[in-house]
Amino acid sequence: MARKKSWNDMTPTQKKLVVVAGVAEVAVTAWCAKDLRQRPAALVRGPKLLWAPALSVQPIGPIAYLAWGRRR
Protein backbone atom coordinates (compact mmCIF):
# COMPACT_ATOMS: atom_id res chain seq x y z
CA MET A 1 0.00 0.00 0.00
CA ALA A 2 1.34 3.40 -0.96
CA ARG A 3 2.28 5.82 1.77
CA LYS A 4 0.10 8.93 2.02
CA LYS A 5 1.87 12.09 0.96
CA SER A 6 2.25 14.74 3.59
CA TRP A 7 1.86 18.42 2.76
CA ASN A 8 5.65 18.84 2.56
CA ASP A 9 5.96 15.97 0.06
CA MET A 10 3.58 17.62 -2.42
CA THR A 11 4.64 19.73 -5.35
CA PRO A 12 3.44 23.36 -5.51
CA THR A 13 0.91 22.37 -8.18
CA GLN A 14 -0.50 19.58 -6.00
CA LYS A 15 -0.76 21.95 -3.05
CA LYS A 16 -2.68 24.47 -5.17
CA LEU A 17 -5.07 21.74 -6.36
CA VAL A 18 -5.77 20.65 -2.79
CA VAL A 19 -6.47 24.24 -1.72
CA VAL A 20 -8.70 24.97 -4.74
CA ALA A 21 -10.63 21.72 -4.21
CA GLY A 22 -11.10 22.55 -0.53
CA VAL A 23 -12.35 26.05 -1.28
CA ALA A 24 -14.74 24.71 -3.94
CA GLU A 25 -16.05 22.08 -1.52
CA VAL A 26 -16.72 24.68 1.18
CA ALA A 27 -18.36 27.04 -1.32
CA VAL A 28 -20.70 24.38 -2.74
CA THR A 29 -21.63 23.16 0.75
CA ALA A 30 -22.36 26.72 1.92
CA TRP A 31 -24.46 27.37 -1.18
CA CYS A 32 -26.43 24.15 -0.62
CA ALA A 33 -26.98 24.97 3.07
CA LYS A 34 -28.25 28.45 2.20
CA ASP A 35 -30.53 27.02 -0.51
CA LEU A 36 -31.87 24.40 1.90
CA ARG A 37 -32.57 27.03 4.55
CA GLN A 38 -34.42 29.34 2.16
CA ARG A 39 -36.29 26.72 0.09
CA PRO A 40 -39.83 25.85 1.25
CA ALA A 41 -40.20 22.29 2.51
CA ALA A 42 -42.61 21.53 -0.34
CA LEU A 43 -39.76 22.09 -2.81
CA VAL A 44 -37.36 19.68 -1.08
CA ARG A 45 -37.48 15.93 -1.66
CA GLY A 46 -37.47 14.35 1.77
CA PRO A 47 -37.29 16.00 5.18
CA LYS A 48 -35.18 19.13 5.42
CA LEU A 49 -33.97 17.96 8.82
CA LEU A 50 -32.30 14.96 7.15
CA TRP A 51 -30.74 16.94 4.32
CA ALA A 52 -28.97 19.33 6.71
CA PRO A 53 -26.63 16.70 8.24
CA ALA A 54 -26.32 14.97 4.86
CA LEU A 55 -24.60 18.10 3.54
CA SER A 56 -21.70 17.42 5.92
CA VAL A 57 -20.89 14.11 4.18
CA GLN A 58 -18.26 15.39 1.77
CA PRO A 59 -18.40 15.49 -1.23
CA ILE A 60 -21.43 13.22 -1.66
CA GLY A 61 -23.97 15.17 0.43
CA PRO A 62 -23.95 18.49 -1.45
CA ILE A 63 -23.85 16.74 -4.83
CA ALA A 64 -26.80 14.53 -3.85
CA TYR A 65 -28.77 17.53 -2.65
CA LEU A 66 -28.18 19.39 -5.91
CA ALA A 67 -28.99 16.33 -8.03
CA TRP A 68 -31.94 14.81 -6.15
CA GLY A 69 -32.89 16.91 -3.13
CA ARG A 70 -34.45 19.92 -4.81
CA ARG A 71 -37.73 20.04 -6.65
CA ARG A 72 -38.11 22.44 -9.52
TrEMBL record:
One short Pfam family name for this protein?
A: PLDc_N
> Which residue range or ranges hold the Cardiolipin synthase N-terminal domain?
31-70
Source taxon at top rank: Bacteria
- Which topology term describes how it sits in the membrane? Multi-pass membrane protein
Location relative to the cell: Cell membrane
What keywords were assigned to this record? Cell membrane, Membrane, Transmembrane, Transmembrane helix
Please report the name of this protein according to its UniProt entry: Cardiolipin synthase N-terminal domain-containing protein
Identify the species of origin. Answer: Nocardioides flavus
Its ancestry begins with:
Bacteria, Bacillati, Actinomycetota, Actinomycetes, Propionibacteriales
Q: Main subcellular localization, coarse class?
A: membrane
